[in-house]
Specification:
The structure holds three protein chains of three kinds. By secondary structure, chain A is an alpha+beta fold. In chain A, about 30% of the residues lie in helices and about 25% in strands. Chain A folds into three domains: about 190 residues, Aldehyde oxidase/xanthine dehydrogenase, molybdopterin binding domain (Aldehyde Oxidoreductase, domain 4), CATH 3.30.365.10; about 325 residues, Aldehyde oxidase/xanthine dehydrogenase, molybdopterin binding domain (Aldehyde Oxidoreductase, domain 4, 2-Layer Sandwich); about 100 residues, 2-Layer Sandwich (Aldehyde Oxidoreductase, domain 4). Chain A is globular. In chain B, helix 3 crosses helix 6. Chain B is of the alpha+beta class. Chain B has two domains: about 80 residues, Beta-grasp domain (Ubiquitin-like (UB roll), Roll); about 70 residues, Orthogonal Bundle (DNA polymerase, domain 1), CATH 1.10.150.120. Chain B is built from six helices and five strands, in the order ββαβββααααα. Chain C has two domains: about 160 residues, Uridine Diphospho-n-acetylenolpyruvylglucosamine Reductase, domain 3; about 100 residues, CO dehydrogenase flavoprotein, C-terminal domain (Enolase-like, domain 1, 2-Layer Sandwich). Helix content of chain C is about 30%, strand content about 25%. In chain C, the strands form four sheets. Chain C has a five-stranded antiparallel β-sheet with strand order 3-4-9-5-6. Chain C has a three-stranded antiparallel β-sheet with strand order 10-11-12, with helices on both faces. At the A-B interface, helix 1 and helix 15 of A face helix 3, helix 4, helix 5 and helix 6 of B.
Chain lengths: ~700, ~160, ~280
Amino acid sequence: MKDISTSILKIDNEEKANGSAIYVSDITIPGMYYAKTIRSTISKGNIKKITLPEMPENYTIVDYKDIPGKNVVKIIFEDQLIFAEDKVTYYGEPIFLIVGPDKIVITELEKQINIEYEEETPEFEYVNSAVHYNFKKGDAKSAFENADKIIEYEYITGYQEQLYIEPQGIVVDIDKNGKVTLTGSLQCPYYVKNAVLQALDAKDSEVRVIQAVVGGAFGGKEEFPSLTTTQLAVAAKKIGKPIKMIYEREEDMEVTTKRHPSKIYMEAAISKDSEILGFRSNVAIDAGANIGLSGVVLSRALIACTGVYTISNLEVKGDVFLTNTVPNGAYRGFGAPQMLFAVEMFMHHIAKEINVDPLELRLKYLAKQGDLTSTQGTFNDPIIMNEMVDKAMEISDYKQKKIDFAKEGVHKGIGMSWFLHGCGFTGSGESTHINALVKLRKDKENKVHILIAAVDMGQGIRTTMKKIVSKILDIPMDQTIYNLPDTDFVPDSGPTVASRTIMIVGGLVARAAKQLKEKWVDKEDITVSERYKQPEYIKWDEENFVGDAYPAYSWGVNIVEVEVCPVTFQVTLKHVWSVYDIGKAIDERIVMGQADGGIMQGIGYGYLEVMNCVDGKIAQKNVTDYIIPTSVDTPAMETVLMDNPYPLGPYGAKGAGELTLVGGAPAVALAIEEAIGNKVFNIPVTPEYIMELIKNGKN
Amino acid sequence: MAKIRFKLNNKMIEIDENPNLRLLDVLRDKFGFTGVKEGCGEGECGACAILINNDVVNSCIVPLGNVNGKEIMTIEGFSLSEKFDVISSSFAEEGAVQCGICTPGMIIASESLLNKNPKPTDEEIRIGLSGNLCRCTGYNAIVKAVTKASKKGDGLW
Amino acid sequence: MVKNIIPTSLNEALELLNDRPFKIMAGGTDLMVQRRAWSQTPPEFIEDVLYIFNLEELKYIKEDKGFIVIGSTTPVEDLLHNDLTPFLLKEAIGIMASPALRHMATIAGNIGNASPAGDTLPILYVLDAIIVLESIEGIRELPINEVITGPRKHVIKQNEIIKEIKIPISVYTDSVFEKVGGRKADAISKLSFTGAVNIKDDKVLDFRIAFGAVSATILRRKEIEEKYVGLTKEELIGKVDEIVNEYDPFIRPIDDQRSNKEYRKTVALNLLKNFIITL
């Protein structure tokens, strides 16, 4: 039999190509109503009075008073209200829905609504800390006391919008017994189910969640759909009708969660003989108006504070700041892109400051198997970064280009980033919060049903999971069945997030398949299940950030070549090269697709994608103003996968989804830094910023 | 209201409708062609791309009044053709389909390009697809797929 | 009651327009975005709409008495593939939006919409385009700069239609159109620069400059251009700083969600300078 990595055609190519795949906006239910969200038009204040027009028959308002259970969205930290009550804390905060059968009538009603506010002064700066974490490794205090020199810089990162091409959307149906069924564009069916159960104060059997075909998510459909589904479930309970709510693009861009803007302050203690004695870092992320997932985003950022390097003495602290702006949340990378940008730039800036070749400095501190991580855990598995770096430099002709581009009058630059990404939930999250359960059921016709809640949002999970099962059971692909998850039929295998799906869920599926193989009896109905068990050697102290923050790490090297126009300061991407260690690819072509798409999001984050909040409102709220790369902006790319199997992953596989994004920004920023000869501190590195750097920057 | 006649997926249609309606809504809601997707509603992302007289256009900014006398082809109609088979199999083989929301529009834009230029260069393909945003693939697999389709379908265009 | 009409001839359209006001819809690429309503509901027009995009009698490009004449509803993509289309206009169309947009967009739409960032407008200014307006009363011809009076403002009367655009045929030894957008395609200009010169026997016979998106309308100053006609190329290049200073006070861009004024101004002047020194 062929190697598992050998590519096969994805199972959903055809339905997606010919337009027959059913996305949420394509669903209609007879007698369906529509919902529109009425939102705060101020950043902070009290609602004094709401004046509604006379509502025609079949048109109604749904607000917090209609919620049978708790008016809060159940996610990691519960502070996002389903509907605002007497006060609002950000522009765009949902206050109520108007629901009815005709969109034109709803639009007319909306125009007649008047909400009077008592405005308060909103906070947009990093002032109100809601979460504070800090931890230490070694003895940073004496490292800094004994330092010959302290190097310090601040790095600033902006928003990033997921910009899935399919906007958020949910359809709810309700049967005569009051059971609600929510179908939507979402990553985490059980997050949604649990949120709706709490909001409705309902029994487990009264809520069902089904995934529609998802038109891109990238984290943007991790926790946000828990808000819209609870709103619609409450509405369906109130009026007893099926209801559809699809966001408009502008609405989606203004009010849904984004990547947290951040300010990262880095200090390095340098000895007389140019050794890095220690780091101090202070990370601030902007959560927007509520905490939600931000604490977890912060901890992933903090844990990544040394990137791929081993630094013996650390003092790390960080805060989640609340501001009166749109709440931020999950986005592919989850805190790591911000921190890895800062770390990679900082290593370069240190090298420049102490007159050492950056490559030498980085190689000197590159982590090795057995080294202690930033949280005093251990890199248990082999690290093959040296070979990966050599490979990346070889395929890109890095060293020669460095020399050529340094010449006078050449406006080109080449930048290289090194990075890692912890696979799965941070710390003991997999065992304490998720506790994933998977099932395989063989029916009497010997068809094997893969019963998991993992969502295919384009990353090919429906294909790769079937591939794992059919290979282990040695049966044809079409003898396996993996329908879009439906909580009435699949157990909670956890959310489709954190690069955990192949490694954790796929690992459990592989184990279940082996179990089924042993128990296989022809023409008999057999169900097997597997539940996650944390490897014994993994120890994590959540309170103090001590121990193994992740069961395994994927690693990567990105190299980006750019040219910067000296007249317009515009950046042209010339070429991108990547080398990854994701353990083992379950399907090479699928991983290559993740690689290309991931790095373009990472590079876009680094040089192109500008999103600002001006007076509490998102200024770039459509795809004309928020610029993502087109086919013309995208250069040729070359990606090499290096096998380094992880014993506990299926066939040795580790996470791949986020890894391919997190190194893009520093690679492109370093390339631009090389091209213009000025240090870069902020992303995105826009032409406007390049102009400023050339005028006033530091060499 | 106005009487509007056009050919839709090879079938003559006459409807009496508000010509201000977005063609996108007419195709999806009145004819059930939901392979035409709405991504941005302002003609920028290309998810709603269709062919009018063999040229790619974004149906979200085409008023119904502008299609009088035209030939419209959605992905549903185009998917019955041999050209579609060549393009879609090339997309599959190159891994050009991920979440799929841009895919019908990409295929329509590819068809429009190949109609005018059966042997496009890499750069011409990038320009031809520049109005179709994709957030999943980083485009390279799509560009390769169009190159492959152009070779596999030699003589079709 | 709103009454939207799809006329079958230009005459019918002119008569309707003479009768009562209409919003004229060409390709719809701007108008349909501006009037966009909730998905699945019609765009919000308070006025009656006249659909002229399919008037075949307005779709042409021809050469006539020293002019290239472009019918107002000719999609710009057609112009891109026509040998008569002036080089600079092709340059602008080639990087305008995307193929899907170019199949519907028209130059007349760019004029009627009168956005300072309209991609073809700087070219029309630089080429001294004449806009031919027709009504039931007859035809009047106006230079482009007299048609557009401010952002989204023009002098086209309620009963008039843009019939065609006349571009004088002229020769340039060097010309450039530089669009500075947020990305390489599918973008709206942060600013644009257009430059055209005709240098014969080392003498500057013609010197034209226009900037887009740096002031309320397209910026072109003929009085500055005229000062430099008659110089040798060397002399012209020698005066580059002076020329930059001449334009400086007229470049008054704004800050918005796409860029800022410092950038727009610096780059506009950089492009001017670069154009001259690389002649």
